[in-house]
Specification:
four-stranded parallel beta sheet, alpha/beta, 12 helices, 3 domains, Rossmann fold, six-stranded parallel beta sheet, 15% strand
Length: 349
């Protein structure tokens, strides 16, 4: 990560006041020419750059206008208009909350660009000081790593993760669903998960969390192998076979509407919880589960971006910081209570 000296650093180095340094760099006539030259030479030597955040804010304040420091929100995929980046579009939430942080958000459809390599340079030329991006193809990801003129923040996990990121928790929703079922008396809990193609870091963490929960709370004879499917390729036969073979007491699912329809065909009703209740399946609002709060994610992204711009944190950081947003609970029709059979781990949760 590039370290850029501030006005305070210059003032300390030259034993001058901060306001004197600021006016000298601005070419104020009341500052002696010798002082202006000395400040300019030292600033060049140390690699000082004008802080865009405060420059724009100061100019807006002079004009008595609300500050609107421009950042860009990247969505879609470069050179591939059919795929959305991660399946989420949070441009509306970002634009709604941006004025609260002194920012202006401009959505950018990556599929409109003919060459991936030119994207950050074009956006920088348009006045952008920050980019918010999700999962992107490898060429764009490599291009962004080499571009150190703007602040870059990711809102979905990328493998490898080299930028600061704010994303939804993967293990949090699964642990919350498990705990709700456990306290309702259910023990043989199955996981019906989704495997993206190509595989994402979330897929591996989701599967690892499922296996870890079973190992933590259940004896080995009650473990149920998670059912993993590729996205948008539903196989009701495979799901029914999985249910008949393992006989779970309850299911934690990725896509509630599809799994619920299959479970309703069974003679024995199975409680089902969704990892995306009321988000991916609007018509399944009666199914309890966890909810990802997109407004909260947008506000956290904007808060982090404002801080990065204010401190001149640009390009690829030396130590990427990952912030995970935990889900909220959606009750739906509730979870049927079941008297648990006696196990040595009955009170473990």
């Amino acid at each position: 990560m590039e370290t850029i000296p501030t006005l305070r650093d210059l003032a300390r180095d030259l034993c001058l006041g901060k306001s004197t340094i600021q006016r000298a760099l601005a070419g104020a006539k009341e500052i002696k020419e010798a002082t202006r030259k000395r400040v300019a030479a030292r600033a060049l030597e140390l690699g000082y750059r004008k802080n865009t955040y405060f420059a724009v804010l100061s100019e807006q304040c002079k004009r008595r206008k609300a500050s609107g420091i421009l950042i860009h929100y990247l969505f879609g995929r470069a050179e591939s208009p059919k795929n959305l980046m991660g399946g989420r579009d949070i441009s509306a939430e970002l634009q709604h909350f941006a004025p609260n942080y002194g920012l202006e958000v401009a959505p950018v459809d990556l599929s409109k660009f003919s060459k991936t390599e030119i994207i950050p340079r074009i956006l920088f030329a348009r006045g952008s000081v920050g980019l918010i991006t999700g999962i992107c193809d490898q060429r764009l990801y490599t291009t962004l790593q080499a571009f150190n003129k703007v602040s870059i923040l990711s809102y979905q996990r990328q493998d490898p993760e080299v930028f600061h990121s704010v994303s939804f928790s993967v293990s949090g929703p699964m642990r919350l669903c498990w705990k709700k079922l456990w306290h309702a008396g259910h023990r043989r809990i199955g996981f019906a998960l989704v495997q993206h193609q190509p595989q994402l870091p979330d897929d591996r963490d989701r599967l690892a969390t499922a296996l870890g929960l079973m190992k933590e709370y259940l004896p080995a004879e009650d473990w149920i192998p998670p059912l993993v499917e590729r996205p948008y390729v539903s196989d009701p036969v495979a799901f029914r076979s999985w249910l008949d073979l393992h006989q779970p007491e309850a299911v934690i699912s990725f896509r509630s509407c599809y799994w619920n329809q299959c479970a309703n065909d069974l003679k024995r009703p199975i409680p089902l919880l969704s990892l995306h209740a009321n988000n991916l399946d609007p018509q399944a609002s009666h199914i309890p589960g966890t909810i990802e709060q997109h407004p909260f994610l947008a506000k956290e992204l904007l808060r982090r971006m404002e801080s990065m711009i204010r401190t001149n944190e640009r390009g690829t950081p030396e130590f990427p910081l990952q912030v995970f947003c935990e889900p909220t609970w959606f009750e739906g029709d509730g979870i049927p209570q079941k008297k648990p059979r006696e196990t040595p781990l009955q009170t473990a949760c």
